[in-house]
Design brief:
Strand content: 25-35%
Structural class: alpha+beta
Radius of gyration: 16 Å
Number of helices: 6
Order of helices and strands: EHHHEEEHEHEEH
Length: 176
């Protein structure tokens, strides 16, 4: 069983724990380059203000004992992709391997399908991150595609593995 955590909106006072836990090269190498490295207190302030401005939250802090140890959220897509959302997450390294992210993905998946008019939730994972692939598989996502040499990170091309879960799989997990 994972340590007790809960998902909650960001709030004033989260800046210090967010900056402390997000400022980690091992996290940065598994997320998009827009995620700052180093991750400063000012980056944390700006992120929290952006999240607090949402009318319907799409991003939540992963909280253990009042400390932000990670984040999980969705990015709603637009135009012809408007029935899709991308899910993404990160977790502070001391909490890796404890089942927190798997449970957070399950909870966020339920939230996304309940509160947004989407049909498909997907995640992209860099080929060198098998732990994240296992998280998604344990949360009921399945591998849909491998986009070959589609990601450019740290001056190298990498494959991206796309995992997906459909709305109908929430009520009928055997349907794929």
């Amino acid at each position: 069983m994972s340590p007790f955590f809960h998902l909650r909106p960001y709030r004033d006072g989260d800046e210090t724990s967010l900056a402390k836990n997000a400022d980690n090269y091992q996290i940065w190498r598994n997320v998009r380059d827009v995620f700052p490295q180093p991750y400063t207190l000012e980056d944390a302030r700006q992120w929290i203000e952006l999240c607090k401005s949402e009318t319907k939250p799409t991003v939540f802090a992963i909280d253990v004992e009042g400390e932000v140890i990670g984040a999980i959220g969705i990015v709603l897509q637009k135009d012809i992709f408007r029935k899709n959302a991308e899910i993404g997450y990160w977790l502070a390294e001391p909490f890796w391997g404890k089942g927190i992210v798997t449970e957070a993905v399950q909870e966020m998946t339920q939230y996304a399908f309940k509160h947004f008019d989407i049909h498909r939730l997907y995640a992209g994972v860099f080929e060198y991150n098998p732990a994240s692939m296992r998280v998604l598989e344990k949360a009921g996502f399945h591998l849909e595609a491998i986009l070959h040499q589609s990601v450019f990170k740290e001056e190298k091309l990498w494959n991206e593995h796309i995992y997906v879960k459909f709305r109908e799989e929430i009520n009928n997990p055997d349907k794929v």
